[in-house]
Batch of 2 targets.
Target 1
Amino acid sequence: MESLDNFPKPSVTVDNVIFGYHDNKISLLLLNRKEEPFANTWTLPGGFLHIHESFEQAAKRILTTKTGVNDVFLEQLYTFDTPERDPRGRVLSVAYYALVNPHKYEIMAGSAANDVQWFDWKALPKLGFDHDFIVQTAVNRLKTKVLWQPIGFELLDERFTMPELHALYETILEREFERRNFYKRIMELEILKKVDIRRDGSRKRPADLFEFDSKKYNELINKGLSFKI
Amino acid sequence: MESLDNFPKPSVTVDNVIFGYHDNKISLLLLNRKEEPFANTWTLPGGFLHIHESFEQAAKRILTTKTGVNDVFLEQLYTFDTPERDPRGRVLSVAYYALVNPHKYEIMAGSAANDVQWFDWKALPKLGFDHDFIVQTAVNRLKTKVLWQPIGFELLDERFTMPELHALYETILEREFERRNFYKRIMELEILKKVDIRRDGSRKRPADLFEFDSKKYNELINKGLSFKI
DNA sequence: TTAATTTTGCGTAAATATGACGCAAAGTTA
DNA sequence: TAACTTTGCGTCATATTTACGCAAAATTAA
């Protein structure tokens, strides 16, 4: 059997694009590096893949140890291979993107970082490596995916109102959705469970509270239909 | 600066799912391995990534040397990391998929293979490694992508008729498209150039011949519109 | 040679989905 | 208590999708 040692091997990192949502803004969780290369520069939280762990395990480990975030929506984005992307040598980056509710987690910088911080996606600093490009790829993915998969809910509290969901979609897609048509479309999917309590916010008329109902969503899929905004 | 040699590194292969179309059937180009592991078993044409080449360079090199195919549509599919997917150790697979017109290439097995052959996608043998799963992923990608990107043309001759294009879509998506509505939809995109000659096939009324016109397609995109079947 | 048949290309009408907007109820603020 | 904002649900006009009619261009049969 052929040996695996005939070829010099590239290093493999897993880098995470972590999306959050707060105050009608999408934000990204970035890490300020302590070590070279790109010391004192903001980058995506990433790290080397260990030999016995899967990408997803690596992504979760990195999220937890470097940022304090855990148990979130996580999906592979793309694998980046631009030959000169890392000054240390040949390093591949398997990029994942995560959707996080920032209210649920205490963000904290791990020991290898100067700082970890949320940045408004419209005001990102220049990032190290090719991470600007990775971010752009992730943003594009989020914008298309949110239209036909119910992933937006991951960015909200478990219980949310229609106006909140509506505002989220307008923020992500950077365009307006006619309010009443948006409500109608969501409601006729029948994937939300109405939690009978009403919101006690400082708004005028209180809005109904909903939860995403994965059981109802599966029923929708089993009927051959699909979530589609 | 941190060294890259602190971690044991995984090996990285590039595996290609190569789609062809002939006789109203989608087929996949498979390779029968000469060496262990999975000797005498059909697998996707793949190989180890060289340290200084990009994924795409690797994919093209593998296609050319192992199957004789070159200059085709090629796109990254997904990176597979199931820990036990290769008996030799930790091997990642960066999978690409290619769309090929089988008439344009002389298929030939490279020296490392017993044989290289087209298989109807509805009658595939059991594949080595996790390649069955990779194929399934590629098929899903093809089915969704073909609806909103003009990639189907890659499977046809440069000049093709509407009935041919229509049949291709019905084959890929395994459902019927109302013939006249399909024609209409394609025509109003205005991305085809009519080559005035008519087909001399053994059919009844000859069909017009078209070519995909990438210049017209770009105009469509620049108008903010999109290819959509 | 002519009629019947198949295939192709283009059209129109019905059905469905999308987008624009009216309005009353439930609160808050003046 | 009146005016105002926000929310929830409805209706109607418009656009898009789907179903299907029909004639032209070839082949095959009589």
Note: Residues 161-163, 179-180, 183-184, 187, 203-208 of chain A lie near DNA strand D (CB under 10 Å from a C1').
Target 2
Amino acid sequence: MATVAGVRALLSFHRSVTLQRSFGHIPAQSTSTFLPRGLCSAPAKSSEPKPPVNTENVSLLENLNLMGVDVKMARQRQPGVLRKAFTNEQGLARFLQDKGASRRVIASIISRYPRAITRSIEHLEQRWALWRDVFKTDGEIVGILDRSPESFFRSSDNGNLEKNIAFLTSLGLNTKDLHRLLSTAPRTFSNSLELNRQMVEFLEDTCAELGGTNPEQFPKSIISRNLYILIRSTKRVKTNIDILRASLKLSDSEMLALLQGPGAEILDLSNEYLKNNFNRLQERMVSLGCRKADIKKLILSYPMVLYIGTDTLSSKLDCLLRGGVTMKQILEKPKVLDYSTENITGRLGELQRMGYDFQKNGINILDSSRKRFDAKIERLSASPETK
DNA sequence: GTAACCGGGATCTGCCATTTGT
DNA sequence: ACAAATGGCAGATCCCGGTTAC
């Protein structure tokens, strides 16, 4: 580990030399390497190694402009990078280009996460290889970088990345899980191993406290149901568990069942949002004459109801109730709330025109894919008397 | 055939605050 | 003091279809 710093120092020196040689046609890059030397001799202050440049590296700026980078954005995000004497923007650009990134993608990546240009080629190659252990193609990785450059570039610790992959694998996540995790929540892999470990331990402890039989498998099941869990703080997840338990007055076994089931999906909501959504839902249901037990049943069977924003949920309920569906039916089939308000409204209209009777036929028809719904409608209109 | 159950795909980053390192 | 590294936060669904069971 102690070697890392030394290697890095060597790399940055090595880079400044090789850059000039390998990019023979780039005068901007070489002036950039000369600039600090001139400044260094002028003040001639203390020892010697650091030119106290408070000014931006002009030739670097020129380079970035030529590459189509949004320099204003870069400056706003990481001003320090623009003052560095030695950077590797050309190397990075070539590297990414080789991987299939377009000019505009490269420019966009640097604009949004300027520190990317401080990574050496060796470092990039290593990191890319590690990502390729999880992804099948370079194209997939380029896609993620375009989406979230920070996830790839924020950490310079490849050893940590490697350990994370090993750690996650040791939890029982297979290649497919890992792929899903890295493409969905790439930040997970830039977390320190320690941070990820803390969350996993917290989940294991929680499971054990609730009387779960095998706490070792618990984190895996949570993670595969909620891919964002590892980029949340343990504080947030813990608070959400407490909120759910207190609001619904859950026993240990009920809580455990909820978490091992669909409840995992809502653990990463912000605490206030969860609380607020619960309170508003409760108010609404009480005003509709529901009992506490109904509320509990709804949330246990369909926790995603708490994920839906209060305004959205409210309008969905409005349009279902207005369309002749009862709250009792919704409680039996909460998945209808999964669908967008527009979708629900449209289907209610279609069904109404056909004289569909929810009291007689139930509301199953609302919980189906577009294809299945249309097929059903077709059958109904072919033989109108059946339903 | 179709209801019931279930899991998965798309996507979820970009900013700020704090700590660490030199 | 500065930049780098790392942690944490707010934001806020919808849809599809395979499989199973009747």
Note: The longest helix of chain A spans residues 2-22.
